[in-house]
Amino acid sequence: MSKSENLKAFxxxxxxxxxxxxDHGTAIPVTGLERPGEVIASLKxxxxxxxxxxxxxxxxxxxxxGKGVCLRTDCYKPVYPGNPDTGPERILTCDDAELVGAQAVxxxxxxxxxxxxxxxxxxxxxxxxxxxxxxxVILESLPIGIGRPDDYTVENIGFVVRxxxxxxxxxVKTAFPVDGTVDDFKAIVDAALVPVVVLGGAAMxxxxxxxxxxxxxxxxxxxxxxxxxxVWQHSDPPAVAKALRAIVHENESVESALKLIG
Length: 262
Known about the structure:
Blueprint lengths: L2 H5 L9 E5 L14 H8 L5 E4 L1 H6 L1 H4 L3 E5 L1 E2 L13 E2 L3 H6 L4 E6 L6 H18 L3 E5 L12 H14 L3 E4 L7 H9 L5 E4 L7 H13 L4 E3 L2 H4 L4 H14 L3 H8 L1
Parallel strand pairs: 1-2, 1-10, 2-3, 3-6, 6-7, 7-8, 8-9, 9-10
Antiparallel strand pairs: 4-5
Helix pairs in contact: 7-8, 9-11, 9-12, 11-12
């Protein structure tokens, strides 16, 4: 299949998507993913696709059947004392994605990171492979690294989104700028060349704040969301997933979507 046909596994007829990343197990110790198959099964009817590690793709093939599957191709560790920050390392290929039935791949892209050139080579080699296999590449492009909201300014997000697109990414996943307005984000999306989806980041524990951010992103032209911890670490994952879907696919207001959570 072509890249555009593969992307249809994630993007609905409205051109938008609700993706659930559950690929955190190699990066950070998290609760809520002890039984990923159960998480997938409970949310499968609400979300459009999942981001998974190779191990989950293999272990949960039955549960993932019929949904968009995006294989995480890199491994990364957030910085902590005594652990040097070498950035993400690509460990898998587009061929691996095909072997486990994934329709897309995702890799971190860390502009401004001290090891950015190594990371850019990883991303570019993955994109080069994708031209042969027709596997869409989603670059998760963030200034310097993951979990650095102070660096997620309008200027920085605008740059990293365009850079990922210039490298050849088919979709860019990024953060909504901490100091950004709907118009600020619209300018970023308008210059992005490819669809942009917005991540949720660490669990907010604030439903209204999460839904408001997503509403602003969609209002600014985002083609969807890739929200993980704010769903599967929520006290009611199916309800918050339905609320997010209502905003993304049904253009519901924050107030209406909140009522779905209760």
